[in-house]
Amino acid sequence: MFKFFTLLKSLLACTVLASALQAHAQSQPAIKVVYHLSDGIAQATRAIGNIRNHLAADPTAKIVVVTHGAGIDFLLDGAVTTSKQPFSGSIGDLAAKGVEFRVCNNTLVARNIDPSKVVLEASVVPSGVAEVARLQAREAYVYLRP
After folding, report:
1. pLDDT tens-place values along the chain, 146 residues long
2. Is CATH 3.40.1260.10 the classification given to domain 31-144?
């Protein structure tokens, strides 16, 4: 009988500890991550997979995708992956999960692209590189470049 109570006491202590650890983890602020894309469709295709995996592992992560140069291409109407699948479904799915997409206006101007060609889920920022720097320096975002 003594062994039973000792085991029960140990089990109860483990349960209390697990609950305390879970409560501590839930009280932590969400990890904020900026994905920086500037290399075109192949990089964007990899990034979409990375972001899906990231959210599967940590659904509370706050993710912002900042693009400039060739990195904006997947956020233009009608863009397709390296395997010729439309990006629109993936972009919509990730946006519904809270992922934000930002496009560099300097790139739009330099490439003479009308901002109306940018998908609805994305917003235009004055400068992609300045946005990445701002998120890192002022908002404590972790930097990732897939």
Report:
1. 555 555 545 555 555 555 554 555 567 899 999 999 999 999 999 999 999 999 999 999 999 999 999 999 999 999 999 899 999 999 999 999 999 999 999 999 999 999 999 999 999 999 999 999 999 999 999 999 99
2. yes
Q: Dig out the tokens for 92 from the structure.
A: 């919509």
Give the predicted TM-score (pTM) of the model: 0.82
d(CA 35, CA 27): 25
Domains of the chain, by residue range, sit at 1-28, 31-144
Buried b (16+ CB within 10 A) or exposed e, 41-53: bebbbebbeebee
Rounded distance between C-alpha atoms, residue 76 and residue 129, angstroms: 19
d(C-alpha 85, C-alpha 133), whole Å: 32
Query: CA-to-CA distance for 64 and 133, rounded, in angstroms?
Result: 13
Asked if residues 112 and 105 have their Cβ atoms less than 8 Å apart, the reply is no
